[in-house]
Amino acid sequence: MVDTVIELSPPSMQELPREVYVRQQNMPARHLFAPHTHPWHQLLFATSGTLVTRLKAQRLFVPSGTAVWLPAGCTHSTYTEFGAELKSLYIHVSYTAFERQSPLVLEISDLMRELILTASNFDPEYPPHGYENDLVQFMLSTLSRMPQKEHTLPWPSDSRLANLCAQLYSSPDARPSMTQIANTLAMSARTLERHFRRETGMSLQGWCSRMRLMKAVEMLGTDMSITQIALELGYGSPAPFIMTFREQLGLSPNRYRLQRRGGQTT
């Protein structure tokens, strides 16, 4: 039996009660916030598990301890394969601290995490003056200082290539050759590579490597063993997976997992 994806409805609000409104959310495995948009900015902070935010031209991976910044008007959906807990900050559109208004994945510092956790306990209509507002203002001034993470996977707009990426994404253990893939699309390998690079800025091989790395990041937020993750990603044994992961992120999968879990909060 194939597990179904359960859609969640975003809250219906006409306006924010204050400059920042914080929601706490537990998303079970294989749940999705369907595509939607807001008239305000949103910061999705994963306190455990991994979120995947889907945009028109890319996927943003948000493991625990990181957050995705979504500017007002950005159409997006958010999905979790294995379950996640998150704090969702809705921020008034007047906030303009980021130099460019585009989606970003941010590393959340210990200080920023504590500020978010504290603000999540405020009444939605906290006093406009005093301690709560002072903390919120400090949190906003700190937010734009968070370092960016390259947890992105480009996604083609061409329907044939988008379907191809969806198939490869759903079966990361599959390793079809370029010729095999091109044949299914009734084009030559050279034509496929040219179209794919034009759509994504990457070679198909590079995209698959990037996709498996992001899938590894997602799986490392679970209790799956390193061996199981390696096999799920199509490696014959853990050793080449560990080596590839270390080459791309600068640390071993186990070390990465420990760092992520060290930053988890509830």
Explain this structure.
It is built from 9 helices and 11 strands. It is of the alpha+beta class and 266 residues long. The chain folds into 2 domains: 144 residues, Regulatory protein AraC (Jelly Rolls, Sandwich), CATH 2.60.120; 100 residues, Arc Repressor Mutant, subunit A. Strands 1, 2, 3, 4, 5, 6, 7, 8, 9, 10 and 11 form an 11-stranded mixed β-sheet that branches. A hairpin with a 3-residue loop joins β4 and β5. α1 runs antiparallel to α2, α4 crosses α5 and α7 packs across α8. The model has no long low-confidence stretch (mean pLDDT 93).
CATH superfamily of the largest domain: Regulatory protein AraC
Shape: globular
So what's the oligomer here?
A: single chain
In total, how many domains does the architecture comprise? Answer: 2
Task: Output the CATH class name of the largest domain.
Answer: Mainly Beta
Gyration radius, rounded: 20 Å
